[in-house]
Amino acid sequence: MKSWWVRRRRHDPERNAAEYVSGELPRRAIRWFEAHLLGCEECWHEVMLGRVGRAMAEEAREPLTRGLRDRVRAHVQVSGSAGHPRER
Amino acid sequence: MTSDQDSFLRATMGAMDLVYNLSRKLVRTREEAEDLTQETYLAAFRAWRQRRRPRRVEPWLATICLNLARSQYRSRSRRPKEVALAEGAESAGGEDPEGLAMAALDRDALHRAMWRLSDEQRVAITLVDLMGLSTADAARAMGTPRGTVLSRLHRGRRALAGLLGVSVMEAGR
Ligand SMILES: [Zn+2]
Prior knowledge:
The complex is a heterodimer of chains A (88) and B (173). Chain A is built from 5 helices and no strands.
């Protein structure tokens, strides 16, 4: 017996692909959607494009610039010491 | 070091990489992104000292960073044009579309591609795909309904794929 939630699911390529690619579809909905993908070329393509776009975004991650960690730590320490007369 | 400083730094320093990457997608230059990261941490620390402490630091820092960017930096940055979805591009197809995508682009090119998205799409993608926030947390940070975030997220991903030349195949509709 399908849950109310799964029965409510329908062909909605944008929303389903967004949730599926983000790993946010509940397990039951995943089963429903993966079965749907086999017969729905539109949803299949949206998922493929979503996966490519997500992979690109993940790859755009940059390392911290040199010294930023120390700089922020120092500013927090100075800021936190304001009003503390025995600052070291 | 005070106990506030100590607890704040211990709780938040691990998220600096994420805050910096979010900043990089909110302002144009590395210098501005560094300044925005620093301001985010100082604003967060002020809140921390006032005992406004979050359960999870990443969404909290993201929200502070977004608000600061909106209030201080937006006017300085040129608003990019919305990217149209790929039209008439070749389909990459194949078994491993992500692999093809990565082989074709270096990180600078990806960064430039992300700046061709609308602000809303770029922020949604950065929060979810780059920072690893849930779409519910991203929605709270952006102050929009989750459905709107899902839409921006998918359209942004689609546009990025389109910039790469992966087409929306018209066949089979
Ligand atoms: Zn469908």
